[in-house]
UniProtKB/TrEMBL annotation:
The lineage of its organism: Eukaryota, Metazoa, Chordata, Craniata, Vertebrata. The gene is METTL26. It holds the Pfam family DUF938. This is Methyltransferase-like 26. Belongs to the UPF0585 family. It comes from the Eukaryota. InterPro entries: DUF938 (IPR010342), SAM-dependent_MTases_sf (IPR029063).
């Protein structure tokens, strides 16, 4: 299994927000960029009415997700699928349009090219049911401004590693949401200067 120190720290704060959107009834969830699989196993176990589909683009992540599923025996977590967020939703494992309640994306946008963020919003816009939610977590620029200084430094270090990486701005995300039939409904402050963003499908 991949090491997941950050996921270990943020899994409970994320779950606390997610519970508000996972409803009492059955919920179909697609997690894009599930990484180690720790969030998938932890949240699916805590939300037994959810049917959780984890995915990632990296074969090592897919192995790790499968290992977490096996080790934690989470019965409402499906085997992971290969999904590249930069590619069309039609390649995302055969999910039909308008059938998902939740699309979840944790800590991917700032460590991938912009086309991955664009693909995430396009795919979520098609696959979510009306009223469904795109739930994202990570560090963001808010209305053109990054704060505090530690996030400014983090953004610089990401852009030095890869000029296509870096904190995404909520103004841009709002535009992408609106272009794909969603709206930014809520921003939740999270520990360590992160946020959960809630985008609602109209
Ligand atoms: C920082 S890790 C976060 C993993 C996990 N969500 C977490 O918070 O522990 C970023 C993840 O994004 C995935 N990723 C990067 N580009 C992607 C893409 N184009 N499509 C899907 N996943 C991608 C990576 O493989 C990696 O698992």
């Amino acid at each position: 299994m991949l090491r997941a120190a950050a996921a270990e720290r943020n899994k409970d704060p994320i779950l606390a927000v997610l519970r508000e959107y996972a409803g009492p009834g059955p919920v179909r969830v697609l997690e894009v960029a599930a990484g180690s699989g720790l969030h998938a196993a932890h949240c699916a176990r805590a939300l037994p009415r959810a049917l959780w589909q984890p995915s990632d683009v990296d074969p090592r992540a897919l192995q790790s997700i499968a290992a977490f599923r096996e080790a934690m025996q989470v019965h409402n977590m499906l085997p992971p699928i290969h999904l590249d967020a930069s590619q069309s939703w039609e390649t995302w494992g055969g999910t039909q349009p308008g059938t998902l309640d939740l699309v979840i994306n944790i800590n991917m946008m700032h460590v991938s090219e912009l086309r991955c963020t664009q693909g995430l919003f396009k795919g979520a816009g098609v696959l979510l049911k009306p009223g469904g939610v795109l739930f994202t977590y990570g560090p963001y620029a808010i209305g053109g401004r990054i704060s505090p200084q530690s996030n400014v430094d983090f953004d610089c270090s990401l852009r030095q590693r890869n000029p296509g990486w870096g904190l995404r701005d909520t103004d841009l995300l709002q535009q992408l949401a609106e272009a794909n039939g969603m709206c930014l409904e809520r921003m939740v402050d999270m520990p360590a200067n992160n946020k959960c963003l809630i985008f609602r499908k109209q």
